[in-house]
Amino acid sequence: MICLAKEWKDFEVLATGDGYKLERWKDVVLLRPDPQVIWPAQQDLRAFRELSAVYHRSEKGGGSWEYLRPMPESWNVSYRDLTFKIKPMGFKHTGLFPEQAVNWDRMCALVKGAGRPVKVLNLFAYTGGATVALAKAGAEVVHVDAAKGMVERAGENARLSGIGTGIRYIVDDCKKFVMRELRRGNRYDGIVMDPPSYGRGPGGEMWKLETELYPFAEMCAQLLSPDPLFFLINSYTTGLQPTVLANILTLALKGRKGHIDAYEVGLPTSEGIALPCGAGGMYTND
């Protein structure tokens, strides 16, 4: 099953092919690499009349942007009542993963329907897409990421969305933070994590998804409150099946009552196909 983020007005995938995706981010059109796009392009993507910039991969790793026409250094896009800052950055990123809107909507519905105060922990929280959505829905959110610049961007996104309170920002290694929270006895009604395939914490801590994800999920499960709403794990690692995330949650939650879903997340395209963008595994206490 693939869950598509169909409700965007300020974003769309215009075309795909030959390892690239052509995207409209409000009034700016970008061409970025995508490892899942292994089919041929049905048109010359670089010939698109309104194309503003192309990201070129380097054989040595990373890459760089080629700017084809004048464009703003940064600009804003909106999803429902949320607003986010978009800015082309290193390694092809823009500061937002639009396919995650399917998870924002689902988590926010659970928060709004809870009928009680809800506290959520967002780990590897990046620029705060989920943080902003959950805070706007009324949750108290603890936002944790090892990159100071990304945490600052999350604060900016919250302000753009009209959120002044309800978010606590933490620049730290996620594993170290969770260990401290366990010692403090803190508990959360919801946990969401977007772990990278590889990463380093601010103190040089190494993270490798294949070896670290299960023990970390098991540790985080201990932070759930007695009556939690959800536990969501996202993965962008190519080739990692959704069932892997479902298995991890099933084993880490050790028989808690509730339901676990596993699914692909993706984006619809103007070509009439779905662009896969990773996997999700979600436990809900229903």
Write the layout of secondary structure elements.
Blueprint: E1 2-4, E2 11-17, E3 20-25, E4 28-33, E5 51-57, E6 63-67, E7 75-79, E8 82-86, H1 101-113, E9 119-123, H2 129-136, E10 140-145, H3 148-160, E11 167-171, H4 174-184, E12 190-193, E13 198-200, E14 206-208, H5 209-221, E15 230-235, H6 242-252, E16 259-268, E17 274-284
Parallel strand pairs: 1-16, 4-5, 9-10, 9-12, 10-11, 12-15
Antiparallel strand pairs: 2-3, 3-4, 5-6, 7-8, 13-14, 15-17, 16-17
The CATH architecture of the largest domain can be named as 3-Layer(aba) Sandwich
Beta-strand percentage range: 25-35%
Ends: how far apart? Answer: 20 Å
Number of strands: 17
Give a structural overview.
It contains 6 helices and 17 strands. It is an alpha/beta fold and 286 residues long. α1 (101-113) runs parallel beside α2 (129-136) and α5 (209-221) runs parallel beside α6.
TL;DR?
This protein has 286 residues and is an alpha/beta fold. The protein has six helices and 17 strands. A hairpin with a 5-residue loop joins strand 5 (51-57) and strand 6 (63-67).
Looking at this protein, list some descriptive labels.
five-stranded mixed β-sheet; Rossmann fold; 34% strand; 286 residues; Immunoglobulin-like; eight-stranded mixed β-sheet; alpha/beta; 2 domains
